[in-house]
Design brief:
The protein has 1019 residues and is mainly α. It is built from 44 helices and twelve strands. Among the domains are: 107 residues, no CATH class; 73 residues.
Length: 1019
């Protein structure tokens, strides 16, 4: 395979060129340590010593060696001065040509710094890394960067660009040859013929089967669900026929997604003209697998939503019934109470009679008389009313009414989910056996349920409720209860889907136990978690840290050094965080408004010349790409999606952009991966600007935050959920965004509005390729103890804003009484269970390594784990470890008012960015027009790119103003005013387009009024 053109010409030249040092960098890289001086003493001649020092400095900076032609004259002079050579005339780089000397110097540098050369062994290991990345169908450039990161971790010399690009190209070729070979050998001829039929046009519908396979309906109406099930049955028949091929291919999920995306985007003509039919079959096989996995998840989503709706409906009816019958139940309770009192009175009277002096005959007669009166009362009207009252109270006290309401809504629920239960394939080996047998019976009996149906999965109360008063089996209620148990079991991990992306057993997401046991040390090293290998050492360190913090915070409180912390008479802790001084926010806006309104298109053009965002839009395919669209076409796509205008509308209202070209560009070039690269370019440039440093409190400990914004969804969408508070009677999603102190948005995602944001925190932090963040803040609803537990492994301080701080529990390694004896006022509420943590430490490490190596997303694992039953050992151990980290943070939160103010300030930034987002996403009432979460995420990524483009433009504009200051005093005064404001300013940006009031002819009119008035509906 020809060498891949992975980097642009400029990027390649930068990679192959020696570093361009600033004065500060030279002072860092040319430093003479004792070890370096020892090596220099053994070298002969000024030239050798100077060249050795330059080679060493360059290697420290770039992990590469360079020929002398790349040696900078300034670096030669500086190296000579560092070595004390006042006169460098004797230094002649041309003499530094001896291959043996150069090799010897490089070996000494490697030994000095603890690096290894790029030898055959290193090349073989790097090839394996490349092949693993190619299996996921990552882009060549992404693989290139990941290989460099691997070489950095392994402390191996960087090879040449040519060597790396060839290695990656060979890995792609080997993967393609292997996959095509498997398809040729394992795909039967009759299956190949059936795959060919997917591309044949039906003469009646004028459509191909594959076209309807591409679209997944988001509706939860029974007819739409049934139509989706019919399509799914067709896809499943194809899936069953290719299962052997799929098992042999062992396609990574990301690879299947990549090929499936190509099929979904491609036109019929592109598929029919495929040069290699086996390559087409490969992609169709991947497409079918992807469809089965996606649709299984889609059906589970419908199942969960439908069951929850049925439960809510029954609970609502029960609540209304209880409210409506409240007076009746009060009267019934009084009636039953009165009847019970009458019984007690009767028993008392009988006791009096039995203890009286009456004869036995007289006693019996008296008792019979009392009983006759009592029976007469019960058989009359009062007795009938009493029985009604007892039945009414019994119905509510034993949930009979609830079961009645569940049964009444059963048909509605069955119409939605019965077919889904029949179509889903559950993983028997990881599912609850009793429930699995019930599902199996339901499917085999074709939805028929009777008294012989399995009931082991039901609770005792539910079993009793299945039989009515006449002894008849309540089939409809049984089905409803079965569906409820299925939904609950899927959410709790007791029932798992075999072909799924989101609903598998948690062990299917984790690094396999076999691989973990074999490569544990290597995996920990690769994930940067070797320091956590020994649990005893880790626990001892945290024990010391937590104990010292208790002592420190209590002593400061007692000494009156923490005036913002008080403890009331009930030992409740009260924290006050003084508001920071009022900041000037209009100054920056005034500076930016000097040039009038700036069109958003002009903003994109301006920042593209600096951040090169248009180059980040790469075609989905790696080869056979036609002419690339213009930069303005990409900008039109960004505006169309980011401002919520829509691509068809954008094509119609834009001059200079071909609508068809725009649609093609968005279809093939717009992906979350490409938009992330474009956004990262902008964020990186913001970070490179000196002006952005003025907003960072502590450059050594950069701070970020994240928050969600609720957005309505106008169309049917499974990810959308109800929330009267935010959407009224409509549905919507939450757009979760991450921002740093420089006010750059570095990540965004879409989630259900009903989900907790905590599980998604680390997705954003791990997706940040620009800056190593040290502190991250969320609002109160953004954290759990399990999220705290992950923070040390992620090398980050998790610092949420905590409301109701007095209700937060603190934990310690020692018992509470130990701290009381020391006179502490701030005490722990519980003791850390070290045994639980140590017992499950290896599973915790495997869980965290899986996240760090991106084998699965953090949200995937945290959501799956937290939905499990609370007795899950890993869940309990993570929570227990999280209590240590949370306690450490809360103690710091108590003690450090500056930390609390910093958290507030950073969260204010993300709230301001949410207001900015609303201004950018203005069209169509700011409601999503897309139904699928991936499409919504694409629009959100475009919006975030536009937001960051404006922020960068603001930085560039104001930075340029600063360069024109008359003197240092004026510049410092201006910087001081700027630092009190924000770069998230947009009132000077024209987001709404330009109105053209020019007319081409004075008397031009679109309408011929005479003809219109003369027109008649009568013929």
């Amino acid at each position: 395979m020809p060498t891949l053109a992975i980097l642009t010409t400029e990027e390649q030249a930068k990679f192959e060129s020696s570093p361009h040092f600033t004065d500060a960098q030279r002072r860092t890289f040319f430093i003479l340590s004792d070890e370096v001086q020892q090596v220099l003493r053994r070298l002969q001649g000024k030239t050798n010593k100077v060249c050795f020092l330059i080679q060493l400095a360059y290697f420290k900076a770039c992990q590469q060696f360079f020929d002398t032609c790349y040696f900078s004259t300034d670096d030669i002079h500086y190296a000579a001065s560092v070595l004390g050579y006042d006169n460098d005339d004797d230094i002649n780089i041309d003499y530094y040509k001896c291959i043996k000397t150069i090799r010897n110097h490089r070996q000494r540098i490697l030994k000095l710094l603890g690096y290894r050369s790029y030898d055959r062994n290193a090349k073989d290991r790097l090839r394996l890394e490349a092949e693993n990345h190619v299996k996921k169908q990552l882009s060549p450039k992404k693989i290139f960067l990941l290989l460099l990161k691997y070489l950095q971790q392994q402390r191996i010399v960087f090879p040449t660009y040519h060597a790396l690009s060839k290695l990656i190209g060979d890995a792609y070729l080997a993967q393609e040859i292997h996959l095509l070979s498997v398809v040729k050998q394992t795909l039967p001829k009759e299956v190949q013929a059936s795959l060919d039929e997917l591309l044949l046009v039906d003469q009646k519908t004028k459509q191909t089967p594959i076209r309807q396979f591409k679209v997944i309906s988001q509706s939860t109406k029974p007819k739409a669900i049934q139509a989706s099930l019919n399509v799914f049955d067709q896809i499943k028949s194809y899936f069953d026929s290719i299962e052997g091929t799929l098992n042999t291919l062992n396609l990574h999920d990301d690879c299947a997604r990549y090929y499936a995306t190509w099929i979904r985007k491609a036109k019929l003509s592109q598929l029919q003209q495929f040069p290699d039919k086996y390559n087409l079959y490969l992609q169709l096989v991947a497409f079918i697998k992807h469809q089965v996995y996606c649709r299984d998840d889609y059906f589970v989503d419908i199942l969960l939503k439908s069951v929850q709706t049925a439960k809510n409906s029954a609970a609502h009816k029960l609540s209304c019934a209880e409210k409506h019958s409240r007076k009746e139940r009060q009267l019934a309770a009084q009636c039953v109470t009165r009847a019970n009192q009458q019984k007690q009175d009767l028993i008392g009277q009988i006791k009096q009679i039995t203890s009286s002096d009456f004869s036995d005959t007289e006693k019996v007669a008296a008792i019979k008389h009392l009983l006759a009166q009592y029976d007469q009362n019960l058989s009359g009207q009062e007795g009938g009313y009493l029985r009604q009252c007892e039945e009414l109270l019994d119905a509510f006290s034993h949930n009979k009414a609830l079961y009645d309401y569940l049964e009444s809504g059963s048909i509605r629920l069955q119409n939605r989910v019965s077919g889904i239960i029949q179509s889903l394939v559950f993983n028997e080996s990881t599912s609850d056996p009793d429930l699995y047998q019930a599902i199996k019976c339901f499917v085999e009996k074709k939805r028929h349920c009777d008294e012989d149906s399995p009931i082991q999965f039901l609770s005792p109360e539910e079993k009793l409720a299945l039989v009515d008063d006449s002894g008849k089996f309540r089939s409809s209620l049984y089905k409803t209860l079965l569906f409820i148990h299925i939904a609950d079991a899927i959410k709790s991990g007791k029932l798992n889907i075999k072909y799924s992306y989101r609903y598998k057993a948690i062990q299917d997401y984790l690094i396999s136990d076999e691989r973990w046991q074999k490569d544990r040390v290597k995996l920990l090293e690769k994930a940067g978690l070797s320091d956590f290998a020994d649990v005893d050492t880790v626990m001892q360190d945290y024990k010391t840290t937590l104990s010292d913090l208790y002592h420190h915070v209590n002593r400061r409180y007692e000494a009156g050094l923490n005036p913002y912390l008080t403890i009331d008479d009930k030992n409740k802790i009260i924290i006050k965080t003084p508001a920071q001084d009022e900041k000037e926010t209009e100054y920056v806006a005034g500076l930016l408004s000097q040039q009038g309104l700036v069109p958003i298109l002009q903003v994109l053009r301006d920042i593209d010349s600096s951040a090169h965002i248009s180059t980040c839009f790469e075609h989905h395919a790696n080869k056979n790409i036609k002419a690339r669209p213009s930069e303005d076409t990409f900008f039109a796509g960004l505006i169309g999606l980011g401002c919520n205008i829509g691509i068809p509308q954008m094509g119609q209202m834009s001059s200079g952009v071909n609508p068809n070209t725009l649609t093609h560009a968005v279809n093939w070039y717009f992906s979350l991966k490409n938009l992330k690269k474009a956004n990262s370019n902008i964020v990186q440039l913001i970070h490179n600007l000196a002006l952005s440093d003025i907003f960072v409190e502590d450059l050594k400990h950069p701070h970020s935050s994240s928050d969600g914004r609720k957005v309505n969804v106008k169309v049917d969408s499974l990810i959308a959920s109800l929330s009267f508070k935010y959407f009224g009677k409509g549905k919507g999603v939450s757009v979760y965004t991450f921002i740093d102190e420089r006010q750059a948005l570095f990540h965004s995602l879409i989630m259900s509005a009903s989900e907790r944001e905590a599980a998604y925190v680390y997705d954003g932090l791990l997706d940040n390729d620009v800056d190593q963040l040290d502190i991250h803040s969320t609002d109160t609803h953004g954290y759990r103890e399990s999220i705290f537990a992950a923070a040390p492994f992620m090398k980050i301080s998790y610092a949420p804003r905590i409301k109701n701080i007095g209700k937060q529990k603190l934990y310690a390694f020692s018992k509470k009484i130990v701290y009381e004896r020391k006179g502490y006022k701030i005490l722990s509420s519980g003791q850390i269970n070290q045994g639980l943590i140590k017992e499950n430490w290896d599973d915790i490490l495997r869980f965290m390594v899986t996240i760090k190596l991106k084998e699965a997303t953090a949200s995937q694992l945290f959501k799956r784990l937290s939905s499990y039953a609370k007795h899950h050992p890993l869940y309990k151990a993570l929570k227990e470890f999280g209590r240590i980290i949370k306690s450490i943070f809360i103690l710091k939160y108590y003690d450090d008012v500056l930390l609390r103010q910093r958290i507030e300030k950073q969260l204010n930034r993300v709230e301001l960015s949410n207001k900015f987002a609303k201004a950018v996403f203005f069209a169509n009432s700011g409601e999503f027009q897309q139904s699928e979460s991936e499409e919504q995420a694409l629009a959100t990524a475009c919006k975030v790119t536009l937001q960051n483009a404006v922020v960068l433009w603001n930085y560039l504009y104001i930075s340029q103003l600063l360069t024109h200051c008359a003197n240092a005093q004026e510049r410092e005064a201006m910087i001081s005013m700027i630092s009190q404001g924000s770069m998230i300013v947009w009132r000077h940006i024209n987001l709404h387009g330009v109105y053209d009031f020019r007319r081409t002819a004075a008397n031009e009119s679109r309408f011929d009024l005479n003809k219109i008035l003369a027109f008649s509906l009568q013929t």
